[in-house]
Amino acid sequence: MTTHYYCTPDWLKESKEIYNSNPQAKEKLKKRSAKMAYRVKAEPSWGINKDIYFCAYFESGELNKLELVSKEAAYDAQYLMAATPKVWKNVLTKKSKFITDFMLGKIKLENGSKVGVLTVAPHANDILDALVPAGMNLVFPDELPSDELEQYRSNMVEFRKELGV
Question: Please, are residues 40 and 160 in contact by the beta-carbon 8 Å criterion?
């Protein structure tokens, strides 16, 4: 089982590769096209010292883009949704449902139409499966011992500087 850390380029790169090599996953989303961006709000206790953004661009089931992006690029997406790392963790681990958290206001729409998001929402589980494919162990910073959390924090500073995100 592959292990990746939340909100890192490696996680998104591996997820995209797994998704794009899975014809069944593409088939489930073949009628979906959307450019979605996500804002993970800063949470210093998780090693996320400032907001971080990533995007998932689907076109007729093809996952064309899944990567960290700048704030400006996130606002170019059709939809931009924001939540705390804990809320995103619960959605990604399927402890809560995207649509429920969205309707309850735990996930805020910052760009795009609510009606548009609600047309994509029935496919949320298929999109989540693209972000956390079967066989991937996604590790969240709140699960790390303090020494690993410091390493995560250091790596985040490094790759964010390198990528300009």
Answer: no
The span from the CA of 53 to the CA of 127, in Å, is: 17
Write the pLDDT tens digit of every residue in 37-96.
999 999 999 999 999 999 999 999 899 999 999 999 999 999 999 999 999 999 999 999
Which pLDDT score, from 0 to 100, does residue 131 have?
A: 86
Indicate the SS3 state at residue 134: coil
Residue corresponding to tokens 């009606």: 115
Q: How is 104-132 classified by DSSP, letter by letter?
A: TTSSEEEES-HHHHHHHGGGHHHHHHHHS
- Region for residue 164 given its phi and psi (left: phi exceeds 0; alpha: psi -120 to 50; beta: otherwise): left
pTM confidence score: 0.93
Other beta carbons less than 10 A from residue 107's beta carbon:
23
Q: How many residues does the chain have?
A: 165
For residues 32 and 61, give the distance between their C-alpha atoms in angstroms, rounded to a whole number.
Answer: 6
